[in-house]
Each structure stands twice: as C-alpha cells, then as structure tokens.
Amino acid sequence: MAATNAQDALSALKDRSLFIEEAYINGKWDKKAKTFDVFEPSTATVLGKVANCEVQDFHDAIAAADVAQRDFEENTTAAQRGAILRKWNDLILANLDDLGTILSLENGKTIAEAKGEVTYAASFIAWFAEEATRSYGYTIPSSTPHTNVYTTKEAVGVCGIITPWNFPAAMITRKVAPAIAAGCSVVIKPPSETPYSALALAKLGELAGIPAGLVNVLPTRDRQAATELATHPTVRKISFTGSTGVGKMLAKLAAGTLKKVSLELGGNAPFIVFDDADLDLVIEGVMISKFRCSGQTCVCANRLLVQKGIAPEFNRRLVEAVSKLKMGFGLDSATTQGPLVNKSAVDKVNQHIEDAVSKGAKIEFGGKNDENQKGFFAIPTVLSGVTPQMLVANDETFGPLAPIFEFETEEDALKLANDTEFGLAGYFFSRNVGRCLRVARKLQVGMVGVNTGKISAAEAPFGGVKESGYGREGSLFGIEEYQVIKSVTVGNLNK
Q1: Cα separations (Å) of 335 from 294, 312, 396, 397?
Q2: Which H helix or E strand runs over 406?
Q3: Which of 21, 32, 380, 431 has the highest local Cβ count within 10 Å?
Q4: Which range of residues forms the domain containing residue 159?
Q5: Adjacent-strand bridge partners of 469
Q6: Are residues 366 and 286 in the same domain?
C-alpha cells in the first residue's frame, strides 16, 4: 500500500541512510549548526532541515576538490574513470525506488515521473562512462621540417555546479558525470528547495568508489556563499542551469577570473501545430511537453501556436485530455499532476491567467487557483484567444497553463515562434516533409522536436541559443565542456 504522507514514505524507505541532511565535504558528512527548512509541496509542510553551508565551507570544499582533482586526473586512466561511473550507475538503478520516493517528496512530481527522472539521471552516467575513453586528440601535419604537432584533451580543473529544483537528480548527473569522465572534481550547490536527491546521489557515488574530495555537495541559502563558485580563482569552470537573470549575473562574476562557463537558462518554447498534422500525435506531444512535471521544465511548451483551420478540433481534444488529469500527492499512484514547487510558482500561474483573461483570452478549462488551498497546487488550465500582448506570450510560466495562439500561414507561425529573446527548445507537427525541413532550420532554438514532444536524452545535445544560454550538455559534445585542449609541438626530431 502506497504511503499517504511524507513521514510514512520516509519510514518505508528500504535504505533510510539515503535521506541525508548533512553537507558532503572532502569525503565527510558534515552536520552543520545552521540549517534551513525543506518543504513537501503537496502539503506545504516541513519535510526536513538541511545543513546551511557558509562561505568558509565553500572555501574548504574548493581546496579539497583542487587536491583531489590533481590526484584523480594524474593517477587514473579514462577506463578506470569509466568503471567508477558504471558502478555509480548500477547503484542508482539498484536504489531506484528509494531515490524516486525522495525526489517525489521534495519536488512534488508524481512517483512515475520521479522514477523516470532517476532512470534518466542514471543514463547520463552510463553514457559518459563510455565517453571517458573517447576523448581523442589529433596529430597535425607540421609546416616545419622534422617537427611533430599533436593535441591532447585535459581536465579543466575544479568545477562549480549549480542546479535547479525541477530536475534535482538529472541536472546533477548531466553535469557531474562528464566532469568525472574528463578527470575534473566538482563542488555542487544543489537547489535549496530540493537538496535531498543530490545528497543521496553523492552517497551512492561514495559507495561506487568516487575518491574523497572529488564530489562535494554543499546545500545553502547563503547567496554570498554560493557565489564563491563564480568568483573563487581555483574554480576553473561553472555550469549553471536556472533563470536567465541569475545566469547573466554568474557569467559576469565568472569573467573576473575568466572561468569556462556553460549556461542552460530560461525558455519560451513554441509548440506549432500545422493544419496537416496528425492530431493524435499532437495531443500526445503537447501533454508530454506541456504538463510533464506540472509544466515546470525549461523545455515546456510555453506557447501553443495552432493554424486556424485546425484550431477548433485541437482545442476540443486538448480540453478532453487535460480534463482527465488528476492533481494530488505525488506518491499516490492515481496522481498525474503533482504540486508546484512553492507559493510563488502558483502566484505566477494565477497572474498569467488573470492578465490573459483581462485582455480578452477565454478559459477553455481550469482557471485561477484557490489562494486558500492546501499545498502548492495549480489547476491545469487551457486558454484560447491568446495574443502576443499578454504576459504569457513573453514570460515563461513554469506551470500547467496551456495558452493557444492562432496563426494563418507558415511565415506567421515562424514570426510568432521566433519573436522572443529566448531560444532553448521548439516543437512543431506536420506531415509535409519539405515543411519539416524548412521549419526545423528556421526556428531560432537550440533543440527542435518534429512530430514529438520528447527531445531530451543522454545522446542528444541539450542547450540553447540567444538568451537561453550557451554550451551543450549530454551527447558526445558534453564532455568537451569540462576539457581544455593542449597543443604540443615537438621540434628537431632529426637531432
């Protein structure tokens, strides 16, 4: 029988030691005098109290990471690093149930989605276990006689990792796995809303043989402490996933020591439905893209752009599908929509609905949420008659709100889709092969889904353009973010 509350769920964990509230610094679990509350979002009650690290803790972790990184890169082969990662992957999958429960409790997403995320998180570790041995250098023909030129790829050094709350497991492994594969060490600042998954993953990494100091996890609500990762000269790389505003701030701070930086920031993804689309695929795609994690993903469809001829039928089918969603506690197997992460997230959804309705939009399903309700729930909502003048057209909602815009021509759709400073993901549905190739090329985004709402996988490059950031995660390119190229010229070979 499934647990009906957080404390019962924690008591039912197979390995209670995976629910950790200490910081992890230099291979030691450190219980801090200062803590902060973490909330279970379906009831808005305290789930636990986690160590609140300070500036000195970050200095200690960075120093430990520096020593560990130098030793790790020098004394392990790529094959050995891959073996450690494979063992870590195996331990994560062996503890799938517990990790899924912990993730669901702190984030609110359904247990099915939570377990899916844990499996997804493990896939990055498995992927980069193999990529560790595939970081090839080049031999380059020299323009000088009796000279050889070749390149090697080396670890960038200590990496600062800052992750978001919406994917508290996958965003850790998508960054840490390639770092370890490259021979780097990491200091992780997990999100204060969802720190437990990061700590549990670190525990399993320790059991897998990751050396002390190579992975450090420092929960904190101290902004000054967290910014040490962007300013400390020993940290040579920052990887951040989060809002565009914070990303810009970190990039400016990192410029002070010319750190390598990769940023995966905000999105405003268009979801285009052409009148020749297969509507069964469209509805399946929009439900995945828009309502996964209750709409709290950076690649969520934020704007549904529907060609006028097909709009009435699309609206009808979407309302029918959305009406079947069931809000509730994430560990309840009947739940399909968990809560949002906090009250501010619910307030933003309400604000977008109120603004759109005040400017002429129509509520097809759902509507404004009860401010006195228990927990941080937002009703899945469909709006029609949405225009570019409304907040939802330009501001990422990050909630279960589906706004429908109508367009006449392909050119109109592309103009609407690209009329944003963001460029993370975009989706469109059409059975016209020529149109598929044209639109995929013309969408100003880093990732495109054609006739599918699912675009994220370990093998697929993940990242955006414009103000959605730079750098790529996952894929064969992901390990390059944690490496530098060294050129070696050997002369006078005839002497």
Answers
A1: 11, 29, 25, 22
A2: strand 401-407
A3: 380
A4: 6-265+469-486
A5: 264
A6: yes
Q: Are 54 and 135 part of one and the same domain?
A: yes
Q: Which residues are catalytic?
A: 264
- We report the CATH number of the domain holding residue 356 as 3.40.309.10
- On whether both 289 and 331 belong to a single domain, the answer is yes
Mind spelling out the 3-state secondary structure of 84-105? HHHHHHHHHHHCHHHHHHHHHH
Residue 74's CB is within 10 A of a number of other CB atoms, namely 9
Q: What is the pLDDT of residues 142-167, one digit of tens each?
A: 999 999 999 999 999 999 999 999 99
> Tokens for 216?
């450090």
Structure tokens at 56: 């000195």
How many Cβ atoms are within 10 Å of 207's Cβ, its own excluded? 12
Phi, psi of 4 (to 5 degrees): -105, -5
* 279 and 257 in a common domain: no
Separation of first and last alpha carbons in the chain: 78
What's the pTM? 0.96
Structure confidence by residue, pLDDT tens digits, 247-291: 999 999 999 999 999 999 999 999 999 999 999 999 999 999 999
Residue 231 lies in a domain: yes
With tokens 């810009």, the residue in question is 248
Parallel, antiparallel, or unpaired for β 381-384 and 362-365? Answer: antiparallel
23 lies in some domain = yes
Task: State how many domains the chain has.
Answer: 2
